[in-house]
Specification:
single chain; 390 residues; 7-stranded antiparallel sheet
């Protein structure tokens, strides 16, 4: 009950007034730290929130808590998108579903957006979200640092006159975009390999999604290459690589530009058969003793076929099929009519000798779906053939 002075082995002294029990400084310090630790860890995010995430990763967010209720806030800049109090289940878990839909609605047609989450009075955790409609086997950081924002990394086939583009996202360091070209001399057949810069590193800032044209004609035009034809080329940006093989493929009809799984523009060229199938709905009645048609509604449908697609490249056709926005692409790379996919056949067989050909059925989005395009059709024979046999 009096005034006591205790010396511990750590040579730290203190006194306790009153009849309470005497504790060492070390035990008091541990008790205070443990109390603070459990207070902080009472509510925590089980789902990892990394600095950069794909939107599909937010379809299920789990929280662990020992509290009766937890306030969860989702922020976008100065706007509060969601602020609710949630009660945990018997396991002390709170599960929030479909936050990806809310985030994607806020991002809209932009490729990414900045968001933040907060639990109760804890510090706000800021992060960036890039749209992605397909689950990946790696984190967003790993993917974005090593790959272009396109469906696959296998060699793509292209042809002169086709429009191609690539998108990428640099998080921290801006790299220049180079192209490694393989050229063949038209006169001698000699093969030449050389590189050219497409985008200097200082032309853009980190933290932006960049789009680069990589069309064969554009790649060939970089430098004095009039005496050469392009055989293949590889686009390089940091650790990213995308190889293209140039062939004398038939003219594509249609060529489309569409928003891929990352909601950025990509192109695809249907080089197979194109089938048109107009559907008519006629309204008819007896008038003045005659059975006449007084209204005709027409829906022009098309079925576009791909050329045989190697295994590993079917992901591009799948992206076209799931895309929310597809436009017909003209030769200059300009988007034209909006297309609506009504059906698709994209079954893939992994046999070694399989020739996978895919079809997409579509129509023009306009109410008047029948279109007439001026200009001559592609000729069956080239200019070296005797025209009299055409």
């Amino acid at each position: 009950g009096g005034r006591h002075r205790i010396k511990t082995r750590s040579a730290i002294c203190f006194h306790i007034k009153g009849g309470g029990s005497v504790r060492s400084c070390r035990s008091v310090f541990f008790h205070m730290c443990a109390r603070e630790y459990f207070c902080v860890m009472a509510t925590q995010l089980i789902t990892a929130i990394r600095p950069v995430m794909f939107s599909y990763e937010l379809q299920c967010v789990e929280i662990s808590t020992t509290e009766k209720t937890v306030r969860f806030r989702l922020l976008h800049g100065t706007d509060t998108l969601l602020s609710e109090d949630y009660a945990p289940d018997s396991q002390g878990r709170i599960t929030l579903y479909d936050l990806n839909e809310l985030v994607e609605a806020v991002i809209g047609n932009a490729p990414k957006g900045a968001f933040a989450v907060a639990l109760g009075s804890a510090a706000v955790v800021e992060f960036e979200v890039l749209r992605c409609s397909v689950g990946m086997d790696c984190t967003a950081e790993e993917f974005l640092d090593t790959r272009f924002m396109t469906s696959g990394t296998d060699t793509r086939t292209t042809a002169p006159g086709r429009y191609e583009l690539l998108n990428f996202y640099e998080r921290e360091t801006a790299h220049e975009v180079d192209v490694m070209r393989v050229l063949r001399n038209r006169a001698t057949g000699e093969i030449t390999r050389e590189s050219a810069c497409l985008v200097p590193a200082g032309a853009y800032s980190p933290g932006t999604v960049m789009s680069v044209e990589v069309s064969p004609d554009y790649i060939l035009a970089q430098g004095d290459t009039q005496a050469y034809e392009l055989v293949e080329y590889t686009v390089v940006c940091g650790n990213r690589k995308q190889r293209y093989r140039v062939t004398a493929a038939a003219a594509a009809d249609p060529s489309v530009i569409y928003r891929n799984r990352f909601n950025v523009w990509d192109t695809y060229h249907f080089a197979g058969t194109l089938e048109s199938d107009p559907q008519f709905e006629r309204s008819q009645a007896w008038m003045n003793g005659q059975y006449v048609t007084y209204r005709t509604q027409e829906v022009m449908q098309f079925k576009a076929m791909t050329e045989p697609v190697p295994l590993g490249l079917e992901c591009y056709v799948q992206d076209v099929a799931r895309s929310p926005e597809i436009h017909r692409l003209d030769a200059a790379g300009a988007s034209r009519e909006l297309l609506t996919v009504t059906d698709c056949e994209i079954k893939t067989v992994n046999d070694d000798d399989a020739l996978n050909v895919y079809t997409l059925t579509y129509r023009f989005a306009d109410k008047v779906s029948a279109k007439a395009f001026t200009g001559a059709r592609h000729r069956v024979f080239d200019d070296t053939f005797d025209n009299s046999y055409e």
